[in-house]
Amino acid sequence: MMGTRGADRQIDNIEFNVSDIARSKAFFGQALGWTFTDYGPTYTEFTDGRLTGGLTTHGPVAPGGPLVIVYADDLAQAQARLEGAGAKIVKPVFSFPGGRRFHFQDPDGYELAVWSAAPG
Description:
The protein has a single domain (13-116), classed as 2,3-Dihydroxybiphenyl 1,2-Dioxygenase, domain 1 (Roll). The protein is 18% helix and 38% strand. It has 2 helices and 8 strands, in the order βαββββαβββ. It has helices at 21-32, 75-84, and strands at residues 13-17, 35-38, 43-47, 52-56, 68-71, 88-96, 99-105, 111-116. The strands form 2 sheets. It has a 4-stranded mixed β-sheet, with helices on one face. A hairpin with a 4-residue loop joins strand 2 (35-38) and strand 3. The mean pLDDT is 88.
């Protein structure tokens, strides 16, 4: 839980208030391969292998806020995995300078995006 010092001026942790930690762990584990360390019944830390954050029931669910963007080598495969886990695609794939991306909502309504520099 943010016990390790991060790099100066770099995003180190992202925390989501969720309504059901087990459901969120299942969703992000299946869709993005995140792993988790539980710190009691109301908090779990997640890691994607590079960035850590938390899922907590300490506050009300508050969709919105900063847009969290995940990178994928294969955009189509990432979208298929997310849809298979129950994600709602809210902005279909579009191109932008440097790549392509799409936006999705998780089970609590948080909007995240996935981008790739590779075509497809």
